[in-house]
Amino acid sequence: MTNDWRETLFVWDGIASVVQSEGKENKDGNDLADNGKDDPTEKSDDLQLKWQGTWVGCESADATKVPTPKRGAFNEFVTSENTFEVEGIATKRTTVDGEKKETNAKKVGGDISSLYRVAMTGGSGYELDEGSDKKKHKDDRHDIYFFSPTLRWMGNLRDQVENMVLAIGENEYGKFISTGWLRVGNRVTLARRYLDDDDERAKWDIEDLREAVFGQIATMADDGHVNIIIPPWQCGAMHAKSVSKRQKIANE
What we know:
Blueprint: E1 8-19, E2 47-59, E3 83-92, H1 98-105, E4 116-119, E5 122-130, E6 133-137, E7 141-146, E8 164-171, E9 174-183, E10 187-194, H2 206-217, E11 218-220, E12 226-228
Antiparallel strand pairs: 1-2, 1-10, 2-3, 3-4, 3-5, 4-7, 5-6, 7-8, 8-9, 9-10, 11-12
């Protein structure tokens, strides 16, 4: 067992769903399910997103050695004694600088300002064992960026970038970065790495994280589509120790 708890990669796995304006969760799943119905992002400018499930700790300083946690065939969530339930408002910024937008659009994932950002600091938070007790904790900051233009699993296996999810945040234990993806049934699986204060990644913004992650997991196919490593946290950017140089995307 490692003496440095930051060598544990914390993988959160759960279902994302829309919370109705009156505070009730949409139980029929139509808003975010991958059923081809209306796009929920066209119905409201203020979309309240709820994400709930379980998290597990995977002890590994090397993120490439952490597989996707498995769950039973009849289980909704990965088996764990620790649960989470977080909520936030989905917002999208608009880039007014046309030249900047055109430049960023050439990067994998397009323009960061066009992504939905969800500040997931609402809800009851996440459970954490403290001795014989289990207590609820909340993040001070937890900004999740969805590359899906509809906040739901796109079912697009040719353009896998559309299912990517990245996050940056901070709480009482320090700053963290997260990498994951949207899956069938609007399941979000996101791996969180806590950082030392003197780690260069503690100063990263979402553009830095995007550049580092895609620079290491993305390859350009002959037909122009981008393929990514699954799970996407299997890259140097998510190691316990800081990476010194970001790799360039193949054929960029």
